[in-house]
Amino acid sequence: MTVLATVLERHRSAPAALARAGRDSAIDTMRGIAILMVIGIHSLQQPLGTSSALLIDAALRPCVPVFLFASGVLTARSGRVPLRKRMMATLIPYAVAFVAAYLYMAAHNPAMDHRITTTAARFVLAYVSVYYYVFVYIGCVILSWLAFRTVSSSRQMHDALAALMLFAIVLGLLCGSYLDPLLTRLAFTPSVIEEARMRDLPFWFGFFALGVLFATLDLEPLLRGKRAVAIMTTLGAYAVYASVRIFKIGDAADYDSTAYFAYAAMFCVALVAVRPTIRFLAALGSGSYFIYLWHIFVIWLLRDHTSLYASSALTASLTAYGVTALTSISALMAVRALASARVAGWLGA
Fold first, then answer.
1. CA distance 30 to 248
2. What's the average pLDDT block by block, 10 residues per block, for the chain (349 residues)?
3. Is the bond into 110 cis (omega within 30 degrees of 0)?
4. How far apart are the C-alpha atoms of 327 and 286, rounded to whole Å?
């Protein structure tokens, strides 16, 4: 029997595997690793002027795909998408952080445009900070809700869902490959093209779809005993992605490229193969949205009010990382210990 036949037989005969309840400490650990990678990217001294800086940045880039992949896995296990609940849990903390970020930027820029239309555009496009992935996630949630509604009436729901997710991955890779050439041909400016690529929803949904597909087909058992293979394949994909960026071979974008998808997807698979379960990282993972929303304020304070980034790139980046990680983690612990459950929820904790 082929591997594919074995997989299909398993998910047909054991659909209960998709409905495991409660928190998954391995998934939370994956998120904990990913949020520390997010802090690492934002702590790097900009611009990335050396090959070593590009190597570090490239290594950390799978952070957002890990979050999307994990959400896809959990969505498939639950078999449903609580759209309103997820939207509220995402938008309320974002709105609070947006107001804080807006006030910070206004205090540092007296000429800031405060017109209602401009402010609304900043909110929707997340222009005040690094929050554009909030709306990438919201878009993935909406697409997954539509996908689950589409297949809910099918007799072979898991087969239909798996096929739909495969199509979504292929579409995402196509969009990632041809969005920027299309926009270039249409004479859009490089800055607009970069903004569009950061928000290339079909591409980012590919990682969400990969997580759904992984759980729907119950692929995790196939990785048992194959950790070394998964890790070595991931390292090979990283070498390709980093080389593409350093030597500017073909599509050398930070994200939204085939090389990036290959590395980030294999990074997610390798994490599943290793299945790390570390209590501290799991705690960070369960509060990763809080850290994502608020860690950037520490970076801003260090850049705007200290001379840290006037020192060497390595010293500045490492110091910023340590200070930001420690402050963000301490803030998460303080909010969870002192704030009510409602307030903690409003802050994303």
1. 30
2. 46 40 82 97 87 94 96 92 93 95 92 92 83 92 93 76 94 94 93 88 96 91 89 96 93 88 97 92 95 96 90 89 96 94 92
3. no
4. 17
Q: Are 328 and 295 in contact (CB under 8 A)?
A: yes
Phi then psi for residue 218, to 5 deg, are 55, 55
Of 91, 99, 140, 90, which is closest to residue 122 (Cα–Cα)? 99
Q: E strands, 95-144, where?
A: none
DSSP state of 222: G
Q: And the tokens for 168?
A: 């979504």
Q: Are 198 and 176 in contact (CB under 8 A)?
A: no
Cα 65 from Cα 214, distance rounded (Å): 14
CB 208 within 8 A of CB 140: yes
Between CA 59 and CA 114 the distance in angstroms is 38
pTM score: 0.90
